[in-house]
Design goal:
With about 375 residues, the chain is α+β, with helices and mostly antiparallel strands. The protein has three domains: about 1-165, Alpha-Beta Plaits, CATH 3.30.70.270; about 175-230, DNA polymerase, domain 1 (Orthogonal Bundle), CATH 1.10.150.20; about 245-350, Dna Ligase, domain 1 (2-Layer Sandwich). It has 13 helices and twelve strands. The chain has helices at about 15-25, 50, 60-70, 80-95, 120-135, 150-155, 170-175, 190-195, 205-210, 210-220, 220-230, 260-280, 315-325; strands spanning about 10-15, 35, 45, 75, 100-105, 105-110, 140-145, 165, 245-255, 285-295, 300-310, 335-350. The strands form three sheets. The chain has a five-stranded mixed β-sheet. A four-stranded antiparallel β-sheet has the order 9-12-10-11, with helices on one face. It has a three-stranded mixed β-sheet with strand order 3-2-4. Helix 4 (about 80-95) packs antiparallel against helix 5, helix 10 packs antiparallel against helix 11 (about 220-230) and helix 12 (about 260-280) packs across helix 13 (about 315-325). Monomer. It is found in: Cytoplasm.
C-alpha cells in the first residue's frame, strides 16, 4: 500500500501583535507601531510593517528601535488579547484537521493529507483558512503549502503579507537550488558566514559540497544541512509536543556583575524547577539531564553555559547549585555587567535513557 504524499500547511499571522493593536485602535492604523515597553531594558515584541520599513525588527532593543524610527508609536504588549485571538485562529484550523502543531501564538503547522473537509487541494484549504481568519478576526495571515514542514515554513514567508505560496513535489529541486542558505531554518548569521568561507552560498552549493565533508566540519548538523538542500524532511506534524526546554529568565533594572547574580539564579532555578514538576505530570518519565545558564551582557551579547552530568539534577537546590557553578565557565572580563540571567533544563530523555524526540526547528519567535 502506497503512503499518500504529505500535504503540509504552515500558517503565519502577519505582524501579529502589532496587527491586533492596529485592529483594536483605529488611530494606530498606518502608523509605525512597535509593541514593547519603552525604556532601556525593553526589547521589541513585534513591529508593524510600517515600522519594519525603518529596519525595526522583533527582539531588537527598544532603544535601537526608537533611534531607527523616532516617530514610532510604542504600545505595551497585551498577551491576554493575543492569546484570545490565537484561540479563535486555532478553532478555524480545527475545522480542517486534527493534526495541528502550534509553534507560537501566531503560527502553526497543519497536516491536511487527509483533511476533515476536502476542498480538492491543500492550496484551496489554505486559501479558505486565510479567508476565515480574516472574516472572523479582521487580521491577515500568510501560508505556505508543501510536502513537508521545512518547505512549508519557507513558503509561508514567500508572499508575505496576506499571501500564500505552494511548493509542489515536482518543484522542490528547482525551488531550492538557488535558495540562499540563510533562508534555511537554523542557519543564523554565524553559520551563514562559516558556510560562505567554504564558498557555500546557496542550497545548490550545499548539494555540491557533499554530505561527508559537511559532517566532518559541522557534525550531524552538517549532514542535516545537506538533506535540507535536497528538501528532505521526514518530521511529522505533532499535535501534542513535549517540552524541549523549561526555563525562567529575568532582566534586571540595573546591570549587575557576575558575582552578584547568585540570588537571582537561585530564584529563577526555583521557578524552573516548578515548571519541571508540571512537565513531569504531563509526561511522566521524561528526565531533564542538562542544566543551562543563560546570560546577556549590558551590550546585549548573549551567551550560555551548560552541563550534562552523569546524573540529572534531583532537586531545586541541586539545579540552583549547578547553575551557580556554571558562572565559573564564563571567561569575560570581571568588570563585565549583565542585564539578564536565565536558568533552564534541557536534554530531555526517557527514564530508560533513550533520548526524547526533539523538533530540530523548535523556537519561540516573537510575532
Amino acid at each position: 500500500m502506497n503512503t499518500p504524499q504529505r500535504k503540509i500547511i504552515h500558517v503565519d499571522m502577519d505582524a501579529f501583535y502589532a496587527s491586533v493593536e492596529q485592529r483594536d485602535n483605529p488611530s494606530l492604523r498606518g502608523q509605525p507601531v512597535v509593541v514593547a515597553w519603552k525604556g532601556s531594558r525593553s526589547v521589541v515584541c513585534a513591529a508593524s510593517y510600517e515600522a519594519r520599513t525603518f529596519g525595526v525588527r522583533s527582539a531588537m532593543p527598544a532603544l535601537r528601535a526608537e533611534k531607527l524610527c523616532p516617530q514610532a508609536v510604542f504600545v505595551p504588549p497585551d498577551f491576554s488579547r493575543y492569546k484570545a485571538v490565537s484561540r479563535q485562529v486555532r478553532s478555524i484550523f480545527e475545522r480542517y484537521t486534527h493534526l495541528i502543531e502550534p509553534l507560537s501564538l501566531d503560527e502553526a503547522y497543519l497536516d491536511v493529507t487527509t483533511p476533515l473537509r476536502d476542498l480538492g487541494s491543500a492550496t484551496a484549504i489554505a486559501q479558505e483558512i486565510r479567508s476565515a481568519i480574516f472574516e472572523q478576526t479582521q487580521l491577515t495571515a500568510s501560508a505556505g503549502i508543501a510536502p513537508n514542514k521545512f518547505l512549508a515554513k519557507i513558503a509561508s514567508d514567500w508572499n508575505k503579507p496576506n499571501g500564500q505560496f505552494v511548493v509542489k513535489p515536482t518543484m522542490v529541486d528547482a525551488f531550492l537550488a538557488p535558495l540562499a542558505v540563510g533562508k534555511l531554518p537554523g542557519v543564523g548569521k554565524v553559520m551563514e558566514a562559516k558556510l560562505a568561507e567554504l564558498g557555500i552560498h546557496t542550497c545548490n552549493d550545499l548539494r555540491s559540497f557533499g554530505a561527508e565533508p559537511l559532517q566532518l566540519r559541522f557534525g550531524r548538523w552538517g549532514r542535516r544541512l545537506h538533506e535540507l538542500a535536497f528538501g528532505i524532511d521526514q518530521r511529522e506534524v505533532q499535535s501534542v509536543r513535549a517540552t524541549l526546554q523549561i526555563s525562567s529568565e529575568d532582566t534586571f533594572p540595573v546591570d549587575l556583575p557576575l558575582d552578584a547574580l547568585e540570588p537571582h539564579i537561585r530564584r529563577l532555578a526555583a521557578a524552573t524547577w516548578q515548571g519541571y514538576g508540571k512537565e513531569w505530570q504531563r509526561h511522566p518519565g521524561r528526565i531533564a539531564r542538562t542544566v543551562v545558564l543563560k546570560l546577556k551582557t549590558a551590550d546585549f551579547r548573549s551567551l550560555t553555559r551548560s552541563l550534562t552530568g552523569a546524573e540529572p539534577p534531583t532537586s531545586e537546590q541541586a539545579l540552583a547549585d549547578i547553575a551557580c557553578a556554571l558562572r565559573a565557565r564564563v571567561d569575560l572580563p570581571v568588570q563585565t555587567r549583565y542585564r539578564l540571567v536565565g536558568v533552564g533544563l534541557s536534554g530531555f530523555a526517557e527514564a530508560d535513557g533513550s533520548p526524547a524526540q526533539e523538533d530540530l526547528f523548535l523556537s519561540a519567535t516573537p510575532a
